[in-house]
Design goal:
Helices cover 78% and strands 0% of the residues. The longest helix is centred in the first third of the chain and has 18 residues. It is mainly α.
Length: 338
């Protein structure tokens, strides 16, 4: 989306709401401002605004508004890779929407919880929430929410080795996203579809679909295309087209160095793994440097999870995480389950 315009409109609305003493209108604008700032790269400021709005909503006993700010804080925590906080906000959001009977937002909260558990590597819990969210969205005929859920289920199927199922769900997700003219969802769904093609060995289809994922963003925001770019590097590597693979990886590394992170990526460690694989094949010394920094970031994220079983899921059951650690000689081994 056009988050700069969203930010500017929210600021104007806040000014109007203050002048008219319209508290609810001002709070809604604050929530949109917090989300816009986060997607524009200022998550700290977005969090401060969202926390202020949450407290004001609670002071006014406004449960619907409280749920909106909890959703915003979930988005912000996710952007800052705080998976535990993301889940906590999503669970609170779900409880409020169930209490007030907002079924559509209940479906969204269920979906967000499924995504959260997917990012932590707990496939069983992720599927539980995602399938609940999909069932409710279908009951409500909320087709706009379905692409997000179907894409997550496609990722889950691919992790479990069900490539054909993953492809079918990603195809349906991309078709629905195109119907609703949602370029962000379309790009993510197309990447999931391309990953399924790649897993099935259909390299030409994978390449064309990764290209389509980049085109879906309008080509104006390369920072939104990390996953598709990394996918093209993996395709090139599979066909031994090292010239193309290196060119793509150099572009990713140059762009990510400008931002010092992979903002907007659905699977940043898969992007890093793809770069490492290409650099390693090319005997480029940057491979070891990137591997070391990637594993350090991964283990730092794992250290934030106090539950040993959850850490084990995070390190062992997300394929790119396990692959990164297996390449590193300096990591302390995979976590044990308790």
């Amino acid at each position: 989306g056009d988050y700069a315009s969203m930010r500017d409109a929210a600021l104007r609305t806040m000014d109007l709401a203050e002048a008219a003493q319209q508290t609810e209108l001002g709070l809604r604008a604050m929530q949109r401002l917090a989300v816009a700032l986060t997607y524009l790269g200022d998550a700290d400021r977005g969090r401060d605004i969202a926390e202020k709005g949450l407290q004001t909503s609670r002071d006014h006993a406004d449960l619907p508004m409280e749920a909106l700010f909890l959703n915003a804080l979930s988005v912000i925590a996710d952007a800052q890779s705080d998976q535990v906080a993301t889940l906590e906000y999503d669970m609170l959001d779900l409880e409020i929407n169930q209490k007030i009977g907002n079924r559509r937002n209940e479906a969204i909260a269920l979906t967000n919880l499924g995504h959260g558990w997917l990012q932590l590597g707990d496939s069983v819990t992720a599927r539980h929430y995602l399938e609940q969210g999909l069932q409710l969205a279908q009951q409500l005929r909320d087709r706009g929410t379905e692409p997000n859920i179907l894409t997550a289920l496609s990722v889950l199927d691919l992790r479990e080795g069900k490539s054909d199922n993953a492809l079918r769900k990603a195809q349906l997700a991309s078709d629905l996203a195109a119907t609703f003219d949602n370029p962000d969802f379309a790009s993510i769904a197309l990447c999931a579809k391309a990953n399924a093609y790649l897993d099935l060995g259909l390299l030409g289809d994978a390449k064309n679909t990764f290209d389509s994922a980049i085109a879906a963003t309008g080509g104006s925001a390369p920072m939104k295309c990390w996953d598709a770019q990394a996918g093209l590097a993996r395709v090139a590597l599979s066909t031994n087209d090292m010239a193309t693979a290196i060119t793509v990886v150099n572009a990713i590394l140059e762009q990510s160095n400008q931002t010092e992170k992979l903002d907007g990526s659905e699977a940043p460690n898969l992007v890093r793994l793809a770069c490492i694989q290409v650099l390693d094949r090319a005997k480029d010394p940057r491979a070891n440097i990137l591997l070391e920094t990637s594993c350090s970031k991964l283990l730092a994220s794992a250290s934030m999870l106090s539950n040993a079983k959850l850490r084990a899921h995070f390190l062992n059951d997300i394929p790119e995480h396990a692959a990164l650690l297996s390449r590193s000689s300096g990591h302390p081994g995979t976590a044990s389950r308790q």
